[in-house]
Design goal:
With 442 residues, the chain is of the alpha/beta class. The protein contains eleven helices and 15 strands. It has helices spanning 20-28, 43-48, 75-79, 179-190, 200-210, 226-239, 260-286, 299-304, 345-354, 359-362, 385-402; strands at 10-14, 34-38, 53-57, 83-85, 92-108, 125-138, 144-149, 154-159, 164-167, 216-220, 243-246, 292-294, 335-337, 411-425, 428-440. The chain has a nine-stranded mixed β-sheet with strand order 2-1-3-4-9-8-7-5-6, covered by helices on one side. α5 (200-210) packs across α6 (226-239). The longest helix is centred in the middle third of the chain and has 27 residues, at 260-286. The radius of gyration is 25 Å and the shape is globular. Its EC number is 6.3.5.2. Pathway: Purine metabolism; GMP biosynthesis; GMP from XMP (L-Gln route): step 1/1. Residues 306-325 are annotated as: Disordered. One of its GO terms (molecular function) is GMP synthase activity.
Amino acid sequence: MEPQVKSNLVLILDYGSQYTHLITRRIRKLSLFSLCISGSSSLKAISDLNPRVIILSGGPHSVHSENSPCFPDGFVEYVEKNGVLCWKLGGEVSVGEKQEYGRMEIEVVESESRGLFGNRCSGDKQVVWMSHGDEAVKLPDGFRVVARSQQGSVAAIEDRDRRFFGLQYHPEVTHSPEGMETLRNFLFDVCGVVADWKMEDVLEEEIKKYVGALKIMSFVLCLVEWILQLQPPLFIRLLGRGFIVSLLTMVQEERACDGDISKRSSFACNFSLTSDSFSQELENKLGKKPVYLVQGTLYPDVIESRPPPGSGRTHSHTIKSHHNVGGLPKDMKLKLIEPLKLLFKDEVRELGRILNVPEAFLKRHPFHGPGLAVRVLGDVMEGNALETLCQVDEIFIRSIKEAGLYDFIWQAFAVFLPIRSVGVQGDQRTHSHVVALRAVTS
């Protein structure tokens, strides 16, 4: 699934906020297609997408910082044709005397039908989530204050004539209970967009894109990953039956790698070599050689791997590297197909239900490509680390399922730690490795 020019595209420019990609998800929940790109993108890259609405999501940089982000030339003139939410448009900003973080109450001071706050009257209050140190002390020409915090600082502004709007809080988080209503007001009432995106559109786009490409090889990594289990039925529907190959985890090559980044890099390299070798083997045996390699890359993989080398993106930090995002060799022989790379995990599950993928697969916890190797801190072959981790992980997951908790946990896993601890085993003292257990909800 590649970025497409859509008549109701909501484009988000990322300037480094930890919540930027949550905005993307919230907007998609409103049946609107949204994309997030770097705030340092060129005006041409922005205009080529032909967005109906542009949302600017701020970040940790103060406008007074030496390296404060700025717009590309001509951006303000361009966005006068579009709705805008957040960041700087003139006026005067200072470091707030009372910096606002966390739960805060705001009050609507200017009400107007079909505005940011709908039909709320002046004096109405709501709870929001703040996270800022700067505050606006003088508004740009044409703007007016429509909401203030309980401390008196500006919480929301608008310029109706130029269709510019700004919020000084996070409407996208659950800590702002009425935030989704504000986003809905902004997108549908103020900007006039139409809710015209649905998950079935993803299927149609992929069918149009890949019909005729018959030689497909899908690698299912590390036992059964639910993301890739979705792809065979997707591509059988698109292309007819191709090759679907299961691989065991490649760990021997990673035993000398200590850090998770080096392990992922090593895995990417060996994965590429293995896939090229196997495709050649298929050609030798069957006379048919796969041309495409299907990967289960998701949008979070792309997001977390930012900024890739040479991308010029400076506002978002790399959360963790992914072997399938920028890690594969440039001279890889197979061509990549990544039909899910602009979808979040919950959207992939929704797509799976449309394809009638069994719920047992869809409800599986995510399992990354490099497998248990990156859950061993240090040498993966030391002290039977992998064997121990496999056993512990199996017991842990089985116990969670037997307790009826599996579907309520987003992800549960074990990690082999590079430390030893004293314990009792068979009524005797033992000094052995430690395995940590973690279960996460979000």
